[in-house]
């Protein structure tokens, strides 16, 4: 059973930056798709960005394009989410997800709060 552990969340002022990390318990980077999702209070979980194993593509949601960057370190079994120019509407619990095709495995989430 693959386990995913997120870290790096916190409280930041608008315009600030945070970097989230997600470490997998097994060597799945480059083999499985991995992604970041987020869920704001009262809203549905939404896709933020991902890394697709088949072509190394990195799709982003329009709302975070040019502000967020996903990257990975295969040696550390870790993906990162660099979040810059944060806005109050980025406030949410951020989840790491992974799977060979669909996202079957999820982390517990890390809270990101952006104050105005």
Quick overview of this protein structure:
The chain is mainly β.
Which short descriptors sum up this protein?
116 residues; mainly beta; six-stranded mixed sheet; 10 strands; globular
What does this structure look like?
By secondary structure, this protein is an all-beta fold. 0% of the residues lie in helices and 48% in strands. Strands 2, 4, 5, 8, 9 and 10 form a six-stranded mixed β-sheet that branches. A four-stranded antiparallel β-sheet has the order 1-3-7-6, with no helix packed on it.
Shape: globular
Low-confidence stretches: none
Percent strand: over 45%
What share of residues is helical?
under 10%
How far is the N terminus from the C terminus? 40 Å
Q: Can you count the helices?
A: 0
What's the topology here?
Elements lengths: L3 E4 L2 E4 L4 E7 L8 E7 L6 E6 L16 E6 L4 E6 L8 E8 L5 E2 L3 E6 L1
Parallel strand pairs: 2-10
Antiparallel strand pairs: 1-3, 3-7, 4-5, 4-8, 6-7, 8-9, 8-10
């Amino acid at each position: 059973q693959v386990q995913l552990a997120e870290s790096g969340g916190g409280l930041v002022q608008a315009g600030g930056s945070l970097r989230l990390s997600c470490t997998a318990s097994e060597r799945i980077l480059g083999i499985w798709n991995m992604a970041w999702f987020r869920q704001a209070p009262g809203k549905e979980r939404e896709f933020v960005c991902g890394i697709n194993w088949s072509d190394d593509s990195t799709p982003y949601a329009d709302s975070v394009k040019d502000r967020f960057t996903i990257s990975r370190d295969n040696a550390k079994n870790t993906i990162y989410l660099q979040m810059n120019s944060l806005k109050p509407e980025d406030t949410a619990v951020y989840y790491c997800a992974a799977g060979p095709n669909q996202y079957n495995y999820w982390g517990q989430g890390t809270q990101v709060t952006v104050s105005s």
